[in-house]
Amino acid sequence: MLKHIFLSIFSTILLFTSVNAQQSLPLNDFNQIAPLSEIENDPLQVLLEDEIMKNPTWRRLINNKKMSVGVVDLNNINSVHYAGINSQEMMYAASLPKIAILLASMDAIEKCELAETPEVTRDLNLMINRSDNHASTRMIDRLGYDKIAAVLQSDEYKLYDKVNGGGLWVGKRYAAGGPRNPDPIKGLSHAASVQQVCRFYYKMITGNLVSPEKSKKMLDIMEDSHLHHKFVNTLDRIAPNARVFRKSGSWRNHHADSALVWGKDGRKYILVALVEDPNGEQIIRDLVVPVENIIKKSRSLETT
Prior knowledge:
Layout: H1 2-23, H2 42-53, H3 56-63, E1 67-73, E2 81-85, E3 91-92, H4 98-110, H5 118-129, H6 133-143, H7 145-153, E4 160-161, E5 166-167, E6 169-170, E7 190-192, H8 194-205, H9 212-222, H10 230-238, E8 243-251, E9 254-262, E10 268-276, H11 280-303
Antiparallel strand pairs: 1-2, 1-10, 3-7, 4-5, 6-7, 8-9, 9-10
């Protein structure tokens, strides 16, 4: 009797451990990952384009280069799929590029160029979780524009690529004054493209931003945003128990959101949207459900 009880308890522990191991992030054993260009998926791409373009407002914005959308299906980590519209179109992204400051900070800490003091840790959390502009400006001042630009353009990351439309860029303090270092292509101060933001999350979840340890620190900082708008407003309703790692941004008519969603029943994906429109915040909220539907449909096409 005791033997059966012990075996039952042991099996339960093994199952619990296995489930938790599968959910632990970043994922292990992904020292080298395929570029997004190599995991573009035709069914997912077609479904995304059909879904977006059937909405007259979204179609107009897409055609005028005022909206871009990128999605990465992570349900099967050994068969990751990417699709995007206006993928390489760099747009003003307000506070979303603060993730570039986070990356540059972790790179500097790893290389002993920046001390990981309590003040730095506090500012990194404020910068991402509360999108605090004062904390962001302090981090920019600690790092300097040259350091941020060097990390983004490095061969290791290439999150800003002049040959392929640019990408993530931070060239101005989140404050009224101070010098600027605009991006070399469009002269934007806080910029992003959906493809490069998707790459940021994809690298982070596979432990390829700085190191697995630093990738985990970034994930920890980016989880459970205090701002419940845009994607998160919808996810709070349809997937309240899903883990969400995100950074958003808004300034005037410029709205941006990015999220890594990690939940049950195959709800594992990266979603990024940039919209220049007075109603951009609502547009971004409204994207989540149709994008989840096309992800599910794309998977069903693979199994038929």
